[in-house]
Amino acid sequence: MVNKNQLLRRLMALGCLLLLCFGLAGAQLVQLQIVNGENYLHRSAEFLTTTSTVSAARGEILDRYGRPMVTNQTGFSLVLIYASFWEDKEDRFTKLLDLAHRVQADGSAAAGDASADDADETADEEEILETAEGTEESDAGGAVLNDMLPITDTAPFAYVGESDDRTELSAYIKESASTLGLEELQQAKEAARAANEQDPQYDAEGNEIDQEEALDATEIVSASEFIDAMRAYLEENAYLPTGLSDEDVRLLVGLYYSMRQVSFSNTTTFTLADNVSMDLIAYIKEHHQDYEGVDVESKAVRSYDTDSAAHILGTVGSVDYEEWNGDKNGGPYREKAGYLMSDDIGKSGLEAALESYLHGTAGSRTVETDLGSGSVLEDENSNAPQPGDNVITTIDLELQQVAEDSMANYLSGYGRGGAAVALDPDTGEVLVMASYPTYDLENYNRDYDEISADSRHPELNRATGGLYPPGSTFKVLTAIAALEEGLIDANTSFTCTGKFEYGGSTFACNNHDTPMTMDVTTAIKYSCNTYFYNVGLLLTGAHLEQWCDRFGLGNVTGIEIGERAGHAAGPTYREEQRKTDPDQREWMGGDDVNAAIGQSDNSFTPLQLANYMAAVVNGGTLYKPTLVRSIKTYDYSDTVQAEEPEVIGTIEISDATYDLVMQGMSEVTAEGGTAATTFADYPIKVGGKTGSAEMTEVVDGVQINYTNGLFIAFAPFDDPEIVICVVGEGAGHGSSVAPVVRDILDAYFAEEEPDAVRSVQAENTMVP
Description:
Elements: H1 4-35, H2 37-46, E1 47-54, E2 61-62, E3 68-80, H3 82-86, H4 92-110, H5 125-132, E4 144-145, H6 163-175, H7 177-180, H8 183-198, E5 201-202, E6 208-209, H9 211-214, H10 223-237, H11 246-261, E7 270-274, H12 278-286, E8 294-304, H13 310-313, E9 316-318, H14 321-325, E10 344-346, H15 349-353, H16 355-358, E11 363-370, E12 376-383, E13 390-393, H17 397-411, E14 418-423, E15 430-436, H18 448-453, H19 462-465, H20 475-484, E16 494-496, E17 499-502, E18 505-508, E19 516-518, H21 520-526, H22 529-539, H23 541-550, H24 571-580, H25 589-596, H26 606-617, E20 621-623, E21 628-632, E22 639-642, E23 647-650, H27 655-668, H28 676-679, E24 687-699, E25 702-715, E26 722-728, H29 734-750, H30 754-763
Parallel strand pairs: 2-13
Antiparallel strand pairs: 1-11, 2-3, 3-7, 3-8, 4-7, 5-6, 9-10, 11-12, 13-21, 14-15, 14-26, 16-19, 17-18, 20-23, 21-22, 24-25, 25-26
């Protein structure tokens, strides 16, 4: 037991130790604040130390064999440092305009513009500025200014760009209405606030609408009025030089607006331009005394190794206001570690769906700058960024290219669009997902206005976002449902004369030339409407919609990228329609007739149609379609995630039913079948079902009627490895799109030749 003397000695020792610690700490404080205080104060006044986030390179995207689809290349960016370039600098706009002109000239030179040939480090300043005057942002491959303002570059000014960009600008104008003296907008805001109290409005779900927030300032304030108001404000309050041309003012207002959008400040730099050439970098470095606060950063930029699969891969772009603060595209990004408003994120396709994997882990960079000279005294990576994970997709890049080329060849003459999807029926892996027309990802930003103006809507991924009546491809499901419910069997037959009378209406069948009596197999072969009209009356729409649900028709599939659900025809969906449109009539027997042949309210995506047929040919297993085989670390050394086939449903299909519908689809491609012209002599036995679906749309008040062509096929017939669905808008009949299926099958089976296999394997040694 410790006695009192021992305890006292221990307490005294502890007290001495504490006094020693306090003494050392006090001495250090004296050293810092008194002895060297003046030096540190002087240093803090003359030197600025900033720590910024360094973005990581995005992960790569490859096809199923390791062939690159999207990779990275190193680009250089001009970055502005707030304290030494912008804060309280009277010449800031003059220097900004000079830099912007040089960037424009640099972009034009890189794009091969002969008028910009003199814009290099040996040119004198006057020549460079004359060359750059009025030059628009460069094409892909040249320097690009970070100008987020959705207004044309030259007068007369007009609003342009995507709706999201316009929404952000509208919010900015409304917020600045008082500061900019926009009286008409201020009055509109006051009226909207009053209306919120006196005449509240509600959306379809019963939520009150904030009428002030709903105001679109771009409809009240013209683009020219906004530019003029910004000119007046910046001239009076922010050292904007007077006498500038309208185009130069527009340029500077655009950059000022972009700075505001990314919260340019002492803690956030502003990326003025990306993809800057070494010539311009050399010029900036050589004249560094004239470009205080301008830094050069290397950055990994997206490089596209294929001009196909645009809708699958998707686009990237800088974080916008709604993504930074709201839930758009996986936001708010301001709450996520390692993101800046200047960062690139996935906007669509796999780039968006797999953002959390592809983005990587940001690092940090500490820079100490001499505020007097603007020179960097110390620059170090405190924490190096780690590139994002790499995505191995299920896509066969060669098949994808064949599908896109074939659709462009066979569908372009119809003046509309189409889609093709190919699946592995035993895993749900997507081998091909093509949409026509498409666009070039490399030049998406440059070509955006042209893409958005195209009436065929090339930005739409028709494979997952296009909704189409399935037409006669649906008859296979109708047959399975009726056979499994015991309403028909192998011996059930109906006679078709080309007309079917029901409820005072006449329904046509023009799919064979002479009257015929058919069983279910023959009805599938000839795609006889009358046979399935009769089956539809027996089965009814209530049962059909249940079978659609089992096969995933009218439901989202769970594919990684965005998709639409569509809807199956039946009394349930009709009642939903009647809630919003009371003029819709109730479900009746005539609807049973039309629904059975794939018309009525049936509307599905090509992906759903391919997946439904995959479940038929594999015997009743409905897989979740996937575009991802695996995700690997940035150096391919480890697997982050390996996808396994996921079963989302099982459909009970008896052997007898399976044999009957498979026999019918076998005869579709045989002599006399609806796809015989394309496949009767094909070296590999192909099964399938053609379809024609009537469409109606109203364009500018004019009703337009046309007929889509559909074909769903699988091969080899005895052991299906691939299921393909092709839809051709306005193609008229499934036989019109069958050549697209044939081209895909030609490429698929050619790849299995020994030489082709060796070539593919040699390309893919990089992927474990």
